[in-house]
Amino acid sequence: MKDLFSQHAPQYAQFRPVYPTELYDFIYTHVKHFTCAWDAGTGNGQAAQALAKKFKTVYATDISSTQLLEASRIKNIHYALGAEVIDLPAASVDLITVAQAIHWFNFQKFFDCVKKIGTTNSILAVWGYGLLRINPTINLLIDDFYQAVIGSYWDIERKMIDEHYRTIPFPFQEIAAPPFSFSFRWSLAKVAGYLNTWSAVRKYIQINQTNPVDKLIPQLQPHWQDNTEVTFPLFLRIGRVH
Description:
By secondary structure, the chain is of the alpha/beta class. It has a domain at 6-132 and 157-183 and 231-240: Vaccinia Virus protein VP39 (Rossmann fold, 3-Layer(aba) Sandwich). The protein is built from ten helices and eight strands. It has helices spanning 9-15, 21-28, 46-51, 65-69, 107-117, 136-149, 158-162, 188-195, 199-208, 213-220, and strands spanning 36-40, 57-62, 77-81, 93-99, 118-129, 173-175, 180-186, 228-240. Strands 1, 2, 3, 4, 5, 6, 7 and 8 form an eight-stranded mixed beta sheet that branches. Strand 4 (93-99), helix 5 (107-117) and strand 5 form a beta-alpha-beta unit. Helix 1 (9-15) crosses helix 8. The radius of gyration is 18 Å and the shape is elongated. The model has no long low-confidence stretch (mean pLDDT 93).
């Protein structure tokens, strides 16, 4: 797997949006037992910490040790370095989740592991979120930045996010999921912080020795009001493993 997030783990923890409770509530309606969950590609543990409120034990893995250092320590969460596989007993996990990370995975290795460790009636839920939306004027500026300015700096895996995971393999009994979105009242400084966590922005800075966000923010400033609402489309694929 590629590790594109270790060098700015504190910023990732500070500026990445928090997933809505409605998402977890929908997933939980399909879960039969709440003994054990695994959050793969946990990053700073955001999803794992939500799962810990519901499950007796949560395992959370990521390839980035610096990301894991940013995670809150909760007694029923077990953090470990790892990627698409985890060494757990067969048929021992009730829910497997991947938040904004499965596009980096080796699908076959991950799915084989899921099938091994999933209990009867276990659930796999993978989700991500797309490009932030504000209003028509600002959206045009964001879209131009996303496509024309840093478009060539995205890794090829980003295309799966743009396609809302519709094109990824999913060899499980799929459950229909509604569309979700989540919104925040953000300052322009918060938006700048979030944009600076994008892997394409970090790559642009590395290659060009200049930050493209610094040119975008003054373009947004005349159209921004205090605590403007920022909305993210959220997409979910969920299915029964066995």
